[in-house]
Amino acid sequence: MADLVRDVMTPGVVAVRPDASLVEAAQLMRAQDIGDVLVADDRRVVGVLTDRDIALRAVADGADPLTVSALAVCTLDPVAIGPDAAVSAAADLMREHAVRRLPVVEDGRAVGMVSLGDLAPIQEPGSALADISGARPDA
Fold first, then answer.
1. What is the DSSP secondary structure assignment for residue 38, as one 8-state letter?
2. From start to end of 1-80, where are the E strands?
3. Which domain of life is it from (predicted)?
């Protein structure tokens, strides 16, 4: 059984610069088939930008995604966790802060991301989210 965040996290970091446009960020999300990217300055996490942030904090307000920066609509100073933290600690942080994903940071550098979907098969193996998380993605 996976006890540590490092055992369940998605390793590696997909990030954009704070001044990247929302179009750049969305194109990266599409290319990587992910719903979020870190906003990072020299590997220091500044924020987390999700596809939902782009839709609700920019596009829905009529903002031009070519001219709006990732920094302008991301969640700043996100709650993070270390790779050697317990999986239960990650679940507690997500619950406490009402977030679905946490950057995994070691020695001040982002090393991965852990999501609610990563935790579901461990925390609640019979749940619908665990089943969905374990399924192969659509082609």
1. E
2. 10-11, 15-16, 36-41, 44-50, 75-76
3. Bacteria
Q: Which long-range contacts (CB under 8 A, 24 or more apart) does 34-40 make?
A: 36/101, 36/113, 37/70, 38/13, 38/14, 38/103, 38/110, 38/113, 39/15, 39/70, 39/71, 39/74, 40/13, 40/15, 40/16, 40/110
Question: In 3-state terms, what secondary structure has residue 101?
Answer: strand
Chain-centroid distance, C-alpha 115: 7
For each of the chain's 139 residues, which pLDDT tens digit applies? 568 999 999 999 899 999 999 999 999 999 999 999 999 987 689 999 999 999 999 999 999 999 999 999 999 999 999 999 999 999 999 999 999 899 999 998 899 999 988 887 565 545 443 333 444 544 4
Instruction: Answer yes or no: CATH 3.40.630.30 is held by domain 5-124.
Output: no
pTM: predicted TM-score of the whole model, two decimal places: 0.81
Contact indicator for 120, 130 with CB cutoff of 8 Å: yes
